[in-house]
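Can you please make up a protein's amino acid sequence together with its fold in token form to help me picture the idea?
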Amino acid sequence: MTSTIAYTTQGRRATLTLMREAAHNRLRESDLAQLEALIAEINEQRDIRVAILTGSGTRSFCAGFEIGDIEDTNWQDNQFSRTIAHLEAARPAVICALNGSVYGGACEIALACDFRIGVTGMKMRMPPAALGLVYFAPGLKRLISRIGLSAAKRVLLTAEKLDAETLLEIGFLDRLVAPDQLAAETDALAARIETLAPRAVEGTKRLLNDIAAGELDAEAAQKTALESFRSEDAKEGIRAFKEKRTPRFTGR
């Protein structure tokens, strides 16, 4: 089967690129399974500290699930929700570099990432109500936790197409840049994260997501925090601060 997601690594960074440009990077079940497998591969590569998810071309980041496949898909065994859950729980920080417009379920894919950088001129629309569909509860929960109830209602109950400036205003985007600045802005954010203690980033990310989902295990959270205070990275971070130098974190 031809790969529809390009996967590359460079140093401490992995990049996933959706490669169905002619179809606005729409996703089929096979693409979602491929994305899930690639996330698992990234999780195993402990030297990877940041992952970037983007799309090919300049028109669309992703137009969501292939509409022609909706009726023939077994939604009881929901590959879409499963893949998004794995993306959200990915070990390293994940940056979504939205190279163009985003539609349908791809909006949730973007929200499952830790950061979203968009480009001027992009649009966003979630059309389930216009298709006679009710969105699955995990996606609704994720949408509300990221942009709030009022914005979620605006997005889903009106099926309105929102412009880039509005997406920044409601918190769907963290940053908005000109298209020719997307790569540089993404690189700068990734480079900043790469300088931080990897286990601290990973542990904090996990706890923040648990809190947002209302699923925090207080005892496990306390253990994670205490272990960080005893880590080699904490000792190095404190030494570097005292010595006024850049810390050299190893992930231990």
Q: What stands out?
A: Residues 196-243 form one domain.
